[in-house]
Amino acid sequence: MTFTEDKFYNLGLVLARSPREARRRTGVGRLYYSIHWAARHFLAPSGFVAPTFQAHKAVIHELRKSHPGLADQVKDLRRLRERADYELSPSLTTTERDDAVAIASFLWGRLR
Predict the structure, then answer these.
(1) CB–CB of 58/75 below 8 Å?
(2) What is d(CA 76, CA 102) in angstroms, rounded to the nearest whole number?
(3) What is the DSSP-derived secondary structure letter of residue 28?
(4) What's the total number of domains in the chain?
(5) 21: buried, middle or exposed (CB in 10 Å: 19+, 13-18, 0-12)?
(6) Do the beta carbons of residue 60 and residue 46 sit within 8 Å?
(7) Is the separation of the CB atoms in 12 and 28 below 8 Å?
(8) Domain residue limits at 13
(9) Which of 28, 49, 44, 30 is nearest to 91 (CA)?
């Protein structure tokens, strides 16, 4: 059985809605990775193959060529993921969590 980005997306939604901060932070990360993979698949028909090194930047750069608004949203979600993963203080707010869920939901509908 293949693991697909929809599993990251669904898990991310469940975890992000948790009252527990560790789960919210993990959920934001899973939502970002679901969108990263969805964007890679979205770009694949044009021949795009993400490099091993700096794949996340490459995906955003390539997406910006044809869909700059979507690229900006992916970049915003990436910033929220980095905040959730690397900035342990202050606490990840419910507003930041809600922003991540809203951005991911918007992108999910456009990239899938």
Answers:
(1) no
(2) 11
(3) H
(4) 1
(5) middle
(6) no
(7) yes
(8) 5-111
(9) 28
pTM above 0.85, yes or no: yes
Cβ burial of 12 (10 Å; 0-12, 13-18, 19+) is buried
CA dihedral 101, 82, 40, 4 (to 10 degrees): -60
CATH number assigned to the domain comprising residue 75: 1.20.120
Q: Which amino acid is at 20?
A: R
Residue-wise pLDDT tens digits, 76-109: 999 999 999 999 999 999 999 999 999 999 999 9
User: Over 80: is that where the pLDDT of 1 sits?
Assistant: no
pLDDT tens, 57-81? 999 999 999 999 999 999 999 999 9
The 3 state secondary structure assigned to 32-95 is: HHHHHHHHHHHHHHHCCCCCCCCHHHHHHHHHHHHCHHHHHHHHHHHHHHHHHHHCCCCCCCHH
